[in-house]
Design brief:
This protein is an alpha/beta fold. Helices cover 45% and strands 18% of the residues. It has helices at 20-36, 40-54, 64-70, 88-101, 115-127, 137-142, 144-152, 167-180, 198-206, 208-221, 236-242, 270-273, 311-318, 329-343, 349-362, 382-394, and strands at residues 9-10, 13-14, 60-62, 73-78, 106-111, 130-136, 156-160, 185-187, 227-231, 252-260, 275-279, 282-286, 322-328, 369-374. A hairpin with a 2-residue loop joins strand 1 (9-10) and strand 2.
Amino acid sequence: MSLPNKKGYFGAFGGKYIPETLSVCLKELENAYNSYKRDSKFKQSLSFYLNEYAGRPTPLYFAQRISKQLGLKVYLKREDLLHTGAHKINNALGQALLAKHMGKHRVIAETGAGQHGVAVATVCSLLSLDCDIYMGAEDVKRQQMNVLRMKVLGANVIPVESGSKTLKDACNEAFRDWVTNVRTTYYLLGSAVGPHPYPMMVRDFQAPIGIEARSQILKKEGRLPDYLLACVGGGSNSIGLFYPFFADKQVKFIGVEAAGFGLGGYHSASLVKGEPGVFQGSLSYVLQDEFGQIKNAHSVAPGLDYPGVGPEHSYYKVSKRAKYEAVSDDQAVEGFRFLSELEGIIPALESAHAIYYLKPLAKKNKGKTVIVCLSGRGDKDLDIIKEYNQKKQRK
């Protein structure tokens, strides 16, 4: 079975649920991607920048102290060590090179945690492309250091004041911009969401995570892992890790969403608590109210603060290829401290959700081997941790 099929569906999920004005630009993008992904010069250029500029391959690090404490064999796929500090640079490089080959001179993007925005600003600087970044006004407040990094790199950061002022609203504004300026502009979408071909394209550009991890664990352990574990917001780092292991049925996938304040209240757990629906151009699991309207999401991690998820994850859920769990804000902060204090690695709050889930996983899986995708570094989140600690002290 091909994933996705020719119409962009992963089983029942995915596709293109779009206004007519977007169909021409999506077809242009699909044709360009299908052509250049087989082009040897394009592949050589991407490989050069991934290795020589971004810093691939990233290490697969054996976390000795965490492993000893939990009774697991825990390996960390260190995407936090890439240039700009997160896995987002993989996809940004791939799509920016594609934009260049398509003759576009302006790139727009959306960002939540700011890591995708920084990656896009970086590659636009590298490749001499004009760059506008849409970011929810609430996220602008939460991620001021990343906003400054984008501006230093020459990008124009546009705060979005509509809706919940977070990632989904930034995506909406980016789509509106693209419809208006499609002749000159490339929309560099940051996660494995949106209409076809974005979910496929982002997955493919993030696949080096899993391809490298598979080769590295075979060298270190002489066998495949028992589990792959990664956080899921839109789902790009997790699908990049999972997909190259798709045919290895003995390897179990666990995606960890944000339970925020709790699954009975305000959260971002689209797969755990959502239902199938159309959101931002594709059919997938989304958070919606009784009338089918998209609900606001919440997570202490800005990159998980999104009410939808990539359609390939929805397919993995219904086909039972992957299992999805949810971790609260308090538990994620506990995971943040756990890794920082035991291994000397400060994780992004997004990744800290997956780190925390090692604890419940360990209860019934002693001795098992687990690879966790450490999708980004956590220095960007120190102000959030500071504010979190101050609120706890006031209670």
